[in-house]
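Researcher: Next sequence.
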Amino acid sequence: MTVPAPRARRRTSMLGRSLPLLLIVALLAPVGTLFASTWRHTSDDRSLADRERLGVEYLRALAPVTETLVEAQTTAVAGRPVPGEPLTRAVEQAAAVDARIGGELRTQERWAGLRAKLEALRDRSPADPEAAYTAYGEVTDLLLALHRKVRESSGLGRDPGADSFFLQDSAGQELPEAVVGAGRLADLGVLAARRPAAERPRSLMEMTGLRVAALAPATEVVDNLRSAVDNSESTDLGANVLTPLDAYQRSVEAMALYSTPSASGAVDQGQLAATALNSRNAARQLQPVILGELDTLLTERIDGLARDRWLAAGAAGVAALVLIWLAVLLIAADRRTRRRAATPDATTPATPPPGDPWQPPAATDLRPLQPVGAAHEPVAEQWGPFDAAR
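Model: Next structure:
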């Protein structure tokens, strides 16, 4: 009878044992890359939003400086002494803000030059309204340039949100330009009424240019804020902004009406000054609302980015734990397989190793077809009679 040979145990190759671990590593790599990319992008967006909030804070400090400077210009052009206390207080508040965050926004050099000009204005004599108008015009130009610098260095001008972009454009550029333009327009009306008749054509040309410079940004403010309300998901933005915006729009429309020259080229200087003052008061009520809503949107964006970062970290952590758990299971299974392969199976008969010569059975071994009694006799005694007969 033929005895079947035992089935040899199949050994797993090195590639077969390492392939699952390679697959796990291949899955860990894209998970880690995706998490790192998400963390980096959210960090960049959060850094931008934080810098934008610094820009909002700086613009909030510049608003009183703009307002008091325009009022001081109107007082100087009218030939009255300019009270220095309101402008000094506004400058000190802005200087404190610049000392704290101006280094990060890179505005300290521009603020130092503007502050020197502002302090020089307090020493001017109100005797020459024309010279005062020119001097204040130079300082307000520097102030508007500082507004642009703040928007640029803080990243407000590159804001990715539609509603927040319209808000920052209104508060950081259009509204300050509209306030300065309205003040210049009203002050030029005062100067034009004092000039000789021969200079009336020049005054009329200047009035026309300033009318455009004052009304164009004011119209942009209205359009921007309505676009911000239409593109915003916030339910509070429209309710908070539209009421002061309507008051500002009415004041701008009145200023546009009374700044239009008559058929003789004359302008009602009193009505123009009154509407310009109403426009400035409406802007004073509107600008803090815009900056407050902008800061709220930026704060909500920062909170959302923080949630996204931790969600990404949690998802990456769970994925890493699952893959590590699978790797541990595979390594443990591989170790068990190796131990079983190294331990001989007791149910499998031992086979001589290949190449081992055959060994005869021992003398005491039982042989097949041999009588039972002869099995215990020595070999020499069994063959003795046969050797004697031979």
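Model: The CA atoms of residues 30 and 123 lie 67 Å apart. Residues 51-303 form one domain.
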